[in-house]
Design a protein that fits this description.
Number of helices of chain A: 4
Distance between the termini of chain B: 45 Å
Number of helices of chain B: 3
Number of strands of chain A: 0
Oligomer: heterodimer
Helix content of chain B: over 70%
Structural class of chain A: mainly alpha
CATH topology of chain A: Helix Hairpins
Radius of gyration of chain A: 19 Å
Number of strands of chain B: 0
């Protein structure tokens, strides 16, 4: 194995680890908002690392461009979609976990009417 | 590289099963959307790992399309939830 392949393998394995941790968080966390927090960040990071590893390994120039395109797309769209789901779930009245200590939206609405 | 991709695939299958379990158990529609989003990202990772294993770039178009569809689907259902409620 060449040096590039070793780095690519390390990136792929690290990315898969992050993805797996995100999926475990999806099971273990108490409500939608915590689960979204567990999914959007580690899984996006894991996907980015995996795709970077694949881009290092694959030789065709088109392959590298496509993989990097997906990484950029994911990095720009993940915050958007998480934000939209979070807002929609909150407005639809999804129940918060009983462990929630601060609900800033309701606090702001009480303050400003 | 084959060993690495086998281990990576095993990890991704475990992650996919966990997402699927959350998709089935849900509780609210938003939970299911989050789980489906995560599941699609796991599938995208799996396609990339498969491309590395086979040393071919045939699947990469599928990868771009899947990433785009996952975003559009999530945003669409988010708007639906906002209008209809959980």
């Amino acid at each position: 194995m060449s040096v590039v392949d070793v780095i690519a393998s390390a990136l792929v394995l690290l990315g898969v680890t992050f993805t797996l941790l995100g999926a475990i968080g999806l099971q273990r966390f108490p409500d939608v908002f915590a689960r979204m927090h567990a999914v959007s960040k580690p899984v996006t990071l894991g996907l980015g690392l995996t795709l970077l590893g694949a881009a290092l390994h694959l030789d065709a120039p088109g392959a590298k461009v496509k993989l990097l395109l997906v990484v950029v797309l994911q990095l720009t769209t993940a915050p958007l979609s998480s934000h939209m789901i979070g807002r929609a779930a909150y407005r639809a009245g999804t129940e918060l976990s009983p462990d929630t200590t601060i609900d800033e939206v309701t606090a702001a609405e009480l303050e400003h009417g | 590289m084959t060993t690495v991709t086998t281990v990576a695939m095993a990890g991704l299958v475990a992650a996919g099963l966990l997402c699927l379990l959350r998709l089935l158990r849900g509780r609210s529609l938003a939970d299911r959307v989050v789980a489906l989003d995560a599941l699609l990202l796991v599938v995208v990772s799996g396609i990339a790992v498969m491309a590395v294993r086979r040393d071919s770039d045939t699947f990469l178009n599928v990868l771009v399309v899947t990433a785009l569809v996952s975003f559009i689907g999530t945003v669409t259902v988010a708007r639906f939830i906002e209008r209809r409620g959980t």
